[in-house]
Fold this protein.
Amino acid sequence: MTRVYAVERPWQREERYYSFGRYLRERFQFKVHKIPIHAGFTCPNRDGYKGSGGCTFCANESFSPNARGTSTPPIKEQIRSGKEFLRSRYDAEKFIVYFQAFSNTYADIQTLKSRYDEAMGDEDVIGLSIGTRPDCVSDDVLELINSYTGTHHVWIEYGLQSIHDRTLRRINRCHTYQEFEDAVYRTRTLGGINVCAHVILGLPGEDHSDMMATARKVSVLGIEGIKLHHLYVARDTVLEKEYRLGKVKTMETEEYVSIASDFLENLSPDITVQRLVGDTRGDSLVSPIWPASKAEVIRAITGELRCRGSFQGAQNVP
Ligand code: SF4
């Protein structure tokens, strides 16, 4: 097959994909890291408002730091300990507070404002990133988030997972692709908020062409970022039951490396990749348990692209 190469960019011969680390280095003259926090919100797909049971893969408590345990530490305390850890480990200088656990726009405006303000009040915090569902953002909420863009670097992270409604039904997302597109459109209209989409590769019922269709479709929406991970089965989830019944399969490392590389080739080179793989080990993980660490899987993906003489966007022809 003849490959069509996009205009050359600095990362095409090095990382082979537009990493978030590079994106931050391009924008800031100091080291910026994200501090994940749990701000005490829940989710409309878990409390019965949208549906029951939540997404089949959802084990938010297991995978969100600070969402583990019975009580949530105050936001200021989470930021203080996050800063301390990231300073000692990575020499981080400034921080983006990432409202990670559950749906961080699921409350009334006053509650949202007070929690965002609490995070933005720290002098070392230069940015805000808010993880939520695409069906959980009213125009008022978007206006509130947009109001921080004059002083802070602002992201909203929408859980999408797949562009295919049949898959969204299969994993009990309780929203449609159209709702995602509508949320992205309304967010972009305001002008200041960067948008990141979360996508899972290897969802039940999806084949290679379904996943590549997701890469191509999100590429034309004008979003700025993407987070990818492989499907993993966590303990005490609906997905675990399906997995034990043989209804769901997970990927081996080699398969994920190949599919993630294909996905990157089909993704716009303008979209920064904030995550390339999920956790590969941990007490809550049922499958897959890979011998390779996250860093090794990322190296394998960049190695695969190098081997192909390829990079993010190589197959993404406008
Ligand atoms: S939207 Fe997020 S928090 Fe809510 S059920 Fe799904 S994965 Fe869990």
Notes: The first strand starts at residue 32 and ends at 37. The two ends are 18 Å apart (CA to CA). The domain at 17-226 is CATH 3.20.20.70 (TIM Barrel). The beta strands are 32-37, 94-99, 125-132, 153-161, 194-201, 225-230, 233-234, 272-275, 285-287.
